Amino acid sequence: MLGRQFPKVETMLREAAADITAFADFPVAHWKKIWSTNPLERLNKEIKRRTDVVGVFPNPAALLRLAGSVLVEAHDEWQVADKRYLSETSLALLDVSDQSAETIAPTAALTA
């Protein structure tokens, strides 16, 4: 259907099918949080805000140091936050060594 008008897009989507649906390998309880890009967009916005303040960087390494420090700061804040993005209980589903995650939470079928 898509291939008639946009054959290149169809090819790209077919080649990236495993990456696009990677969230389906996780327990269903994680899906809503995993497929959202809000935390990533928030981080990018904070990096942009900080780089706009500096304006011009003397070299690429200086930009990487600033962006890296923003990421480290965000990581530290997430570590001590009262409200976790994914609860410890739901993360425990990923760290089960003696049984597979599908035994605990069967993977649901993707529907269009």
TrEMBL record:
UniProt keyword DNA-binding, yes or no: yes
Entry-linked InterPro entries: Transposase_mutator
Keywords of the record: DNA recombination, DNA-binding, Transposable element, Transposition
GO biological process, alphabetically ordered: DNA transposition
GO molecular function terms attached to this record: DNA binding; transposase activity
Pfam families the record matches: Transposase_mut
Summary of the function given for this chain in its UniProt record: Required for the transposition of the insertion element.
Similarity field: Belongs to the transposase mutator family.
Protein name: Mutator family transposase
Origin organism lineage: Bacteria, Bacillati, Actinomycetota, Actinomycetes, Mycobacteriales
